[in-house]
Design a protein that fits this description.
CATH topology of one domain: Rossmann fold
Number of strands: 12
CATH superfamily of one domain: NAD(P)-binding Rossmann-like Domain
Strand content: 15-25%
Distance between the termini: 42 Å
Oligomer: single chain
Helix content: 40-55%
Radius of gyration: 19 Å
Structural class: alpha/beta
Shape: globular
CATH class of one domain: Alpha Beta
Length: 328
């Protein structure tokens, strides 16, 4: 029987797909007619057309599948129509999970995000027990992922959904073809388009380690539990210095106050509405940056045997991939 992967053409999903194939699993990927298939090139994977908003297509995709990795997500910090983010992340998650219940899927790994977790007031590392509610979620992406995770938890209680939840931090590495908001930070820095920074931080992790964590959660994780898949907490200033050293640029030295960054984001989003292009700086991104998003992966390390590599290697591989594929 096959393992179904959603989001397999994307950044994290394609890494998960490769882990499963390397481990000997027979993999099926659900793809939309408009999907960019570059990340599936040359891989021994069965593809089937479908969409998370089309329940019958999900039922067809799950036919004959023992397991599900629901990795697909609409990871944007700005959208001209924010309702799209909720349709993809919340409604789509509900649809695929209900279809999995109907199909009798025996094991599910759901890809949530550290965005659904709480943050500490003193900037220390949060973990899976750090409390958070919907009112704590800043922006449509975080709210949608929080609501989607609640859908999974509700279905687990009410329908016995056999799901393990993983919460990746900020992944970097190869195959970020879009790129993601996190990858965009690296790309803009490498291009010299980040002359200043704000005082914040992220938990940086290699995308292939996130994928390995998915497989560990599948094979060793407890149903109903969640596991943070991160690596190393780094200030934004440190991240930008790492990128600068890799591309031979001087790192930015100007620390921008959050108020000034908010003003820039307002202008950027106003222009985005007129131009239809993604803004270089978003209001949600600046608001999120008021607190460093630092997390601990101790639970995954102890319970699953998760062992991520240093964050500097994730940054290196991200820059290398962007360079080799003509982004720089």
């Amino acid at each position: 029987m096959s393992v179904l992967v959603t989001g397999a053409t994307g950044f994290v999903g394609s890494a998960v797909l490769r882990q499963l194939i390397a481990a000997g699993y027979r993999v099926r990927a659900i793809v939309r007619p408009s999907s960019d298939l570059r990340n599936l090139g040359g891989l021994p994977v069965e593809t089937i057309q479908g969409d998370l908003t089309d329940r019958p297509s999900l039922e067809r995709a799950l036919d004959g599948c023992r397991s599900l990795f629901h990795v697909a997500a609409d990871y944007r910090l700005w959208a001209a129509d924010p309702a799209e983010i909720y349709r993809n992340n919340v409604d789509g998650t509900r649809n695929i999970m209900l279809a999995a219940v109907q199909a009798g899927v025996q094991r599910i790994v759901y890809t949530s995000s550290v965005a659904t977790l709480g943050q500490t007031d003193d900037g220390t590392s949060a973990d899976e027990t750090t409390a958070a509610g919907l009112d704590d979620m800043i922006g449509h992406y975080k709210r949608s992922k929080f609501l989607a995770e609640q859908e999974v938890r509700t279905l687990a209680r009410e329908h016995g959904l056999p799901a393990v939840i993983v919460n990746p931090a900020a992944p970097l590495g190869p195959r970020d073809i879009r790129p993601t908001p996190t990858g965009r930070i690296i790309l803009d820095a490498a291009r010299g388009r980040m002359p200043a920074y704000v005082d914040t931080g992220l938990n940086i992790v290699h995308v292939d380690d996130v994928a390995a964590g998915h497989l560990l959660a599948y094979e060793r994780g407890a149903e109903g539990e969640c596991y943070i898949l991160g690596a190393e907490n780094m200030s934004l200033r440190h991240i930008l210095r790492e990128v600068a050293s890799l591309v031979g640029r001087r790192p930015p030295r100007v620390k921008l106050p959050h108020g000034a960054a908010l003003a820039l984001a307002l202008l950027a989003e106003a222009w985005a509405k007129l131009s239809g292009r993604q803004p270089a700086v978003t209001l949600d991104g600046v608001r999120l940056a008021r607190k460093p998003m630092y997390f601990s992966s101790t639970k995954a390390m102890q319970a699953l045997g998760y062992a991520p590599r240093p964050a500097a290697l994730a940054i290196r591989d991200s820059v290398r991939w962007f360079r080799e594929h003509g982004y720089l």
